[in-house]
Amino acid sequence: MELKRAGEDLDAKGLTEWMWDIVYWTWGVITLAAIFGKWAWYLAIVVPVYSAWLAWTTFSGARSGLAGMSGSKDESAPAVQSKRQAKMEKRGGQKMQYR
Questions:
Q1: Helix, strand, coil: what percent of the chain each, to 5?
Q2: What predicted TM-score, i.e. pTM, was given to this entire model?
Q3: Nearest C-alpha neighbor of 29 from the set 17, 37, 40, 14
C-alpha cells in the first residue's frame, strides 16, 4: 500500500475508523428509507444519541475518577491497619505513625 499524499491514511484507527462507520450507517439508512419509506429516517438519530451517551459516560467517569485526587482527606475516617501493624502495636513494639 502506498500513501498518495502526506497526512492521509484512511485505514487509520480511532476517529477515521469511526467516521467510516458513520458513512456506512448513513448508506444503510438511505437504503432503508428508499425501501421502507420515511419512517426509516428515524434510524439516523441513533448515531447522535449514542455519541451523546458515550460522551456523558466518559465525562462522568473521568469526573468521578478525578474526585479522589483532590488531596483532602477525611480526618474522621479511621486509619486502616494491617494485621501485622496491629500485632506490633499490641506487643508494644514500634508504633506506626500515620501522616
A1: 60, 0, 40
A2: 0.46
A3: 40
**Locus of grid cell 467510516:** 20
What grid cell was written down for 72?
483532602
Residue 9: half-sphere exposure toward Cβ, Cα within 13 Å: 8
pLDDT digits (tens, 9 = 90+) for 46-66: 888 988 998 888 888 777 766
Cell of 93: 513494639
Inter-axis angle of helices 46-67 and 15-36, to 10 degrees? Answer: 150
C-alpha cell at 96: 506506626
Three cell numbers, residue 91: 506487643
